[in-house]
Amino acid sequence: MAETDSKAPAKAKPAALRKGALVKVNRSAYNDSLEAAASDPTAPDYIFEGPGELLLVKGDYGQVRWNRPVPDVWLRMDQLESCG
Length: 84
What we know:
Family: Belongs to the complex I NdhO subunit family.
Helix content: 10-25%
Membrane topology: Peripheral membrane protein
Enzyme class: translocase
Number of helices: 3
Order of helices and strands: EHHHEEEE
Structural class: alpha+beta
Radius of gyration: 17 Å
EC number: 7.1.1.-
Number of domains: 1
Largest sheet: 5 strands, antiparallel
Distance between the termini: 44 Å
Shape: globular
Subunit structure: NDH-1 can be composed of about 15 different subunits; different subcomplexes with different compositions have been identified which probably have different functions.
């Protein structure tokens, strides 16, 4: 008889976000970050509600465009999550 592995299977890693993905900002990841400290004391609600479009990914950062008349922003990829 073959022994069975009693370890629980590892959780699947979430799919990486790609250019064109609809995203929103994860509030808990953003609140104590360097990006939050460099911005207004209160972040606008629309970044947490989404959707924003991921325009470009460079290294650990992604450029997000919101469907509002505001400038595009660069945020760390670990602060973004899918709006789906």
